[in-house]
Design goal:
The chain has about 400 residues and is α/β, with parallel strands linked by helices. It contains 16 helices and six strands. Helices cover about 65% and strands about 10% of the residues. It is elongated and about 100 Å long. It comes from Pediococcus ethanolidurans.
């Protein structure tokens, strides 16, 4: 056991100082800094658009001036097209609205500068349409009661449901959005961690093998002990990055939720514990499966420069699974259903299917059990692969060595 921890600590000390791991460790910090910086710049540079309203009908213009909106500021002193054009050319105005009343017809044209602050014209259109309807109602001689009925909008409610084993289950309205967002974040993290640490642990094994240090290690430490010690050390490094990523994610959500409209609309209190558990288990098992297999593949190479060749099939499978997860967002075909139960791809597909309601909790548990069984089988196979090839320096092609003495 003492030898086990010696090898484990050596893996941690060696890799924690490597440029590759430092970059991986700093990636979420740099991404957080970038996103916060962009949000801060946007908040400090975006200003409320300055607009003017001109019309051939003073009454209509005055009524529109009384409408309040946070989306724009109206310069009341600018009341003619000539003044508006002059202010627009001098860049003291972002745009102006020209309203023309011809009989019963109301025409509005908004003219803006390309380098001015962008105006969301939704509220402006709403105010204009409201005044037009009031004018029409007055002309038609409608009573106040009739006018109220005219402006009363239709009652519209949105209800989200999911189906599990044919039974309907009511969900909160934006719960689906939160679940989908969580699933995509976890899927992206799974892919990044799988590719990064599969290469890292394969490189770790190949480097020692190429420098002939492995011959000394094998003479004092059994290959099986080395294998599990290296994998344990790599998991410790993964855990450190998960903690840093989680802290950056929490701080990012706390800051950006008040600055990004999409996050403002999400009620994070609706996150369900069961989906966090399911997604977390797929994250852990998916990374475990790829990391263990990559350690065995690293033992197949004779030199460190052959690592990419050894792990490239594993990387390609991970990429296919990552791409399939996006398809699973809007599709539930037979292939997607089948892929969500097949190890090496299920860790990316099933979380998305479960999040969007296309898979039940039972389906997710079955997929997790299959994935766990696959890890046990891969661990058994990879341990033998490592022990048989850790001192193999033959010139045979990498993939032919798998069947040698296995």
């Amino acid at each position: 056991m003492n030898k086990f921890w010696v090898v484990c600590k050596q893996v941690i000390r060696k890799n924690i100082k490597s440029p590759t791991y430092i970059v991986l460790l700093l990636m979420p910090v740099l991404l957080l800094g970038f996103m916060v910086g962009v949000a801060a710049i946007k908040n400090h540079t975006s200003e409320t658009p300055q607009i003017a309203i001109v019309s051939n009908n003073t009454t209509f213009r005055n009524a529109l001036l009384k409408s309040n909106s946070k989306d724009y500021t109206i310069k009341r002193s600018i009341d003619t097209p000539k003044k508006a054009e002059k202010a627009l050319s001098q860049e003291t105005l972002d745009g102006y609205l020209t309203i023309t009343l011809t009989g019963k017809q109301v025409t509005a044209v908004y003219k803006s500068r390309t380098n001015g602050n962008t105006l969301d014209t939704t509220s402006l259109k709403s105010s204009l349409n409201s005044l037009k309807m009031q004018q029409t109602a007055t002309r038609l001689g409608l009573s106040p009661t009739q006018l109220t009925e005219l402006f009363t909008p239709a009652s519209f409610k949105k209800q989200s449901v999911s189906y599990s084993n044919g039974k309907e289950k009511t969900q909160k309205n934006n719960q689906q959005d939160i679940n989908s967002l969580l699933a995509m974040v976890v899927t992206i993290l799974i892919y990044i961690f799988m590719v990064s640490y599969a290469s890292l642990i394969a490189q770790e094994v190949a480097t020692e093998k190429g420098s002939r240090i492995m011959e000394i290690l094998v003479s004092s430490v059994a290959p099986q002990v080395q294998f599990f010690a290296k994998v344990t050390g790599m998991f410790a490094l993964i855990l450190l990055q998960v903690i840093i990523t989680a802290i950056c994610g929490f701080l990012g959500m706390k800051y950006l939720s008040g600055n990004v409209q999409f996050l403002k609309d999400l009620d994070l209190s609706q996150i369900q514990p069961n989906i966090l558990i399911i997604l977390g288990l797929f994250f852990i098992l998916g990374i475990t499966l790829y990391t263990i297999l990559a350690a065995g593949l690293g033992a197949l190479v004779s030199r460190a420069d052959q690592v990419s060749q050894a792990v490239s099939p594993l990387t390609m499978i991970g990429l296919v699974a990552y791409g399939a997860s996006f398809v699973a967002m809007n599709s539930n075909t037979f292939l997607i259903k089948l892929g969500s139960f097949i190890p090496f791809v299920s860790q990316s597909i099933m979380p998305v299917r479960y999040a969007v309601g296309n898979a039940s909790t039972t389906d997710a548990i079955v997929s997790l059990i299959i994935l766990a069984i696959a890890i046990v089988l891969v661990t058994w196979f990879t341990t033998r692969l490592y022990a048989n090839h850790v001192l193999d320096y033959s010139d045979k092609k990498i993939w032919k060595r798998i069947f040698k003495r296995n």
